[in-house]
Amino acid sequence: MLEVRNVSKVYEGKVAYQALSGLNFTIQKGEFVGVMGPSGSGKTTLLNVVSTIDKPSSGEVLIDGVDTHRLNKRQLALFRRQELGFVFQDFNLLQTLTVKENIIFPLTLENVPIAEQDKRVQQIADKLGIAGILNKRTYEISGGQCQRTAIARAIIHDPKLILADEPTGNLDSKSAKDVLETLQRLNRDEGATMMMVSHDPQAASYCDRVIFIKDGALYRELHRSDGREAFFQNIMNVLSSIGGSSDEFSSVRV
Ligand SMILES: Nc1ncnc2c1ncn2[C@@H]1O[C@H](COP(=O)(O)OP(=O)(O)OP(=O)(O)O)[C@@H](O)[C@H]1O
């Protein structure tokens, strides 16, 4: 589903900075993959390149076979809108709209008929446990409910790839667990393909696989084989070997 082929990114400036160097990895359809690494290792740069927001200096990013950086501006905007779903740390919901209006926003851009919009929003809200708050405004709901609303918006158009950037970064531990279980359920039950950048080893332990990057290059990769607790321990072990200051990774949650 996602192929990152020999991707490098150099930020030009007074002093050029190589943020990614020759990165290669793939994400199969239906996989839930975490990306971890110390501060400054290139996670955001990678996410921006995969999400087509930024261009690599060299290399290719293929999403379902489409070489995204060869698309023109208009094709790219359409591709992003139709094929990708985004979940951000700060939710990025529109405060003046209700939960329902936020969720259907991507469909209104695509001129999907109202009856179809209503049907889809109801199905997704049921799935995510937010059917009871559809008519509330975002300032009337909790952080966890905001993030589940954002997830609903990210998946309502059935994207090929869901990209999540620290989706639990602004949540208390209970809401974080809730949101991670929601993402895991979407992955397992609906076959959603996801890439999630996170500092949090607890969050990453919900993934099938975690890719660690250091200094813009692939450092290690871990597959989850046993239970989540064992995977969490393995992730912690890699983090302690990767370096960077320990407070760059959020404190342990149980
Ligand atoms: N627009 C830019 N211009 C120049 N250098 C940049 C730019 N954006 C990022 N960098 C540099 O590239 C490197 C990678 O940054 P990036 O934001 O991708 O790291 P990160 O792993 O997401 O870090 P964090 O976990 O702290 O968010 C850093 O050294 C950063 O200073």
From TrEMBL:
GO cellular component: membrane protein complex; plasma membrane
Molecular function (Gene Ontology), one example: transmembrane transporter activity
The keyword Metal-binding is assigned to this record: no
Pfam families cross-referenced by the UniProt entry: ABC_tran (PF00005)
ABC transporter domain sequence ranges: 2-240
Keywords in alphabetical order: ATP-binding, Nucleotide-binding, Transport
Annotated InterPro entries: AAA+_ATPase, ABC_transporter-like_ATP-bd, ABC_transpr_LolD-like, MacB-like_ATP-bd, P-loop_NTPase
Entries under PANTHER family matching the protein: ABC TRANSPORTER ATP-BINDING PROTEIN YXDL, IMPORT ATP-BINDING PROTEIN
Descriptive protein name: ABC transporter ATP-binding protein
Organism from which the protein derives: Paenibacillus oceani
